[in-house]
Amino acid sequence: MTAAPATPSATRAPRRVGLIGWGAIGRVVAAALAAGEIPGAELTCVVDNRPLGDTAPAPQLTLAAALTRCDLLVEAAGQGVVRAHGEEILTAGADLLIASTGALTDDALTARLRAAGPGRVYFTGGAVGGLDLLQAARALGPLTDVTLTTTKLPATLEQPWMDEELLHRMRTATGPVEVLRGTAREIPAKFPRSTNVAASVALATGDPDAVRVSVVADPAARHTRHVVEASGAHGSYRFEVRHLPDAANPATSQVVPYAVLRSLAALAGRPGMIL
């Protein structure tokens, strides 16, 4: 007897996606899902702590209600959501795609998320490339020297903890000014909305304390710039990216929601993806 052919991926039930966050990233992701641009994924609901009225292309639900309807939640609302609700989402059986990777520099939280289930946790690389290659290189041996230099407009880097002297230097700068230097564990906590790239590099290379980060304010920075350099006994790597800032939220890059959509397409099983 001839065995029945495998069910084509096109006939699989679509991923039922809940989007957490209705900001610069969430609106782009929601629009693409609602327009059917990600085959195999459909927008089921939006979760946000503000009333959205009829602005969202899917019903606005509480997180509890979303977990009864969705099998994949996309976090696009900030590190606090990952800390407060990551385990809850995974324990309920939904997968979780994280955009705010800065939360994952907390080793205890990361361990709990990886141990939780039956849902699975994923993260998107966001505004930086080369993470897949760094993960592959890491399998050959440790990367002994990893640096990241992030350059942004001064106004996008201002934080409540900054003193008047630093703020004055940033606001009156006529050229690049180093705002802070630290590790990939320290920097995302200082800039929770604008340095998730540091955490993403750390996740790829395996050690947030070994990634040295420099945050630079540049009044002439038309593009957000990230330079990643890494080396080990087996080779050396350098990646440089320049992105236009998002018009609605200059602290993030215009490309970030499209990185989220690419990750969604992979999770939905789109063929031909580079993984």
TrEMBL record:
| E.C. numbers | 1.4.1.21
What is the protein name given in its UniProt record?
L-aspartate dehydrogenase
Q: Which EC class is this protein assigned?
A: oxidoreductase
The taxonomy runs:
Bacteria, Bacillati, Actinomycetota, Actinomycetes, Kitasatosporales
Q: Which Gene3D superfamilies match?
A: Dihydrodipicolinate Reductase, domain 2, NAD(P)-binding Rossmann-like Domain
Q: Does the keyword Oxidoreductase apply?
A: yes
Q: Which residues form the active site?
A: H226
Give the catalytic activity.
Answer: L-aspartate + NADP(+) + H2O = oxaloacetate + NH4(+) + NADPH + H(+); L-aspartate + NAD(+) + H2O = oxaloacetate + NH4(+) + NADH + H(+)
Give the family this protein belongs to, as stated in its UniProt record.
Answer: Belongs to the L-aspartate dehydrogenase family.
- Aspartate dehydrogenase domain sequence ranges: 174-260
Record's keyword terms, sorted: NAD, NADP, Oxidoreductase, Pyridine nucleotide biosynthesis
Q: What does this protein do?
A: Specifically catalyzes the NAD or NADP-dependent dehydrogenation of L-aspartate to iminoaspartate.
